[in-house]
Every structure is written in C-alpha cells, then in structure tokens.
C-alpha cells in the first residue's frame, strides 16, 4: 500500500527515491532464463539457456544474436523487447558503416542502446524495456558489457544475468581466470549455466563466439559435442 501512487507512472519518484517501474522491469529480467558472458584470451564467449517446450522448434527462440561482424548480444528478459532492441542495434551498426565507412566501436553501440533504454525511463506514457543485454565485441581488444533496464552500463570480464545469475556468478567468481583458453571458457560457461538452471541440454543452450573480430554462433553439432564433453 505504501508504494501505491508511485508505481503508476515511470516519471514519479517515491519518497525513498525509488522508481518502481524500473524495479519491476528488473524483476522481468530476474525471471528469464540465464545468460552468461566470458572474456577469454583472444575473444569473448556468450552462452544462454532457453526454455524449450514440447513440439516447439528450438531455433524459433533466439537468445543470442549477431549484431555486426564483430558484435554479438545475449538477451535476457521479455523476448519481444529483446527483439526490438536487437533490430535497433543492427540499424545503428549499419548507419555507422554508411556514415563513416568503418565498423562501429563496441562502446559507442552500448552507449547508444543504453541511451535509448534510459529515455524510456523518463517519458510519461512509456514503460522501461524489461531487458538486460550482454554485449560482446572486439575492436582492438575484447569487451563484454551489460546494460540493464535503467540504461546503466557496466563492463565485465565474466558475468551472468537472469534467474540463475546468483548461482552462475558464484561459479564465475570462483573459477574465472584471466587469459583462459576458448575451451576453458566454454567449459566454465556450461558449468555456470548448469549451476543457474540445474538442467540443460544441447537443445536448450546457445553459444556465440567472437574471435579475430568475427562473430559466429556455434552449430548444433558443436554445441552437442561441447555439452557432452564438459558434462
């Protein structure tokens, strides 16, 4: 009852200085399946679990997306919001290429996405995006950024978001090492996802990999071999 009247509009602060609509958006992220990002020697790995139901085509759920040749995003939250932000990010990358004849810097794209998120926290009649994104890219050095529903930006060497983030982060904190190999990063990502989701399979996970400034998604066969190898 105390918060009633302060959670009806995004532009209203509570007496405690809280913005309830942003907190509700964060709750949407906390209910979504877990996504993990890890920086390793020479690149960045993204891994995400997805909820696959019977009779559903697994590939119809996209948690990891290619944004540009050197950038990928792992989405966590309301997937419709994720899709809109992914499309927005792709357009910004193409605009930069047309305007400057060069690929966009990872930091510049992250700031652009976060600025858009932040605008949706201060305009009446709108709601925040219920999305946290892990943005991975390489433009001279590998980067892993997180942007949350408020538009806050953080850079990490390894991070997890979603419903199993607390357990996954414990694994990352305990076992992450700088300059680890790609195989070790994949092994650690699988271990972190298992800690957060308890049960995963080759059909319920996605992997994105950035090496030599090139992003690619692991094939179903590569994922099957990895999950079997590091089970």
Helix content: 25-40%
- Whole-angstrom Rg: 18 Å
Domain module tally:
1
Order of helices and strands: HEEEEHHEEEEHHEEH
* Residues in β-strands, percent: 15-25%
By DSSP (H or I, 4+ residues per run), the number of helices equals 6
CATH class: Alpha Beta
Q: Runs with pLDDT <50, length 5+?
A: none
What is the CATH homology-level superfamily? Aminohydrolase, N-terminal nucleophile (Ntn) domain
Largest sheet: number of strands, sense, barrel closure: 5 strands, antiparallel
Within the largest sheet, what's the order of strands? Answer: 8-1-2-9-10
Name given to the CATH architecture = 4-Layer Sandwich
- Globular, elongated, flat, extended or rod-shaped: what is the shape? globular
Task: Indicate the multimeric state.
Answer: single chain
Instruction: Measure the end-to-end span.
Output: 48 Å
Structural class: alpha+beta
């Amino acid at each position: 009852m105390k918060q009633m009247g302060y959670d009806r509009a995004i532009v209203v602060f509570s007496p405690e200085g809280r913005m309830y609509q942003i907190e509700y958006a964060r709750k949407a992220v906390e209910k979504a399946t877990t996504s993990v990002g890890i920086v390793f020697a020479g690149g960045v790995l993204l891994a995400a679990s997805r909820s696959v139901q019977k009779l559903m085509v697994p590939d119809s759920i996209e948690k990891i997306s290619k944004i540009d040749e050197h950038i990928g995003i792992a989405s966590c939250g309301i997937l419709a919001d994720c899709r809109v932000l992914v499309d927005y990010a792709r357009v910004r990358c193409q605009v930069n290429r047309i305007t400057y004849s060069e690929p966009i810097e990872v930091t510049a794209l992250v700031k652009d996405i976060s600025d858009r998120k932040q605008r949706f926290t201060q305009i009446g009649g709108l709601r925040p995006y219920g999305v946290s994104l892990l943005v991975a890219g390489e433009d001279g050095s590998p980067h892993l950024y997180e942007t949350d529903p408020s538009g806050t930006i953080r850079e990490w060497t390894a991070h997890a978001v979603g419903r199993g983030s607390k357990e996954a982060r414990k694994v990352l904190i305990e076992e992450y090492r700088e300059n680890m190999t790609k195989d070790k990063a994949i092994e650690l990502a699988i271990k972190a996802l298992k800690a957060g989701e308890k049960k995963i399979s080759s059909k319920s996970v996605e992997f994105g990999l950035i090496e030599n400034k090139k992003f690619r998604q692991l094939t179903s066969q590569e994922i099957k071999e990895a999950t079997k190898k590091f089970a």
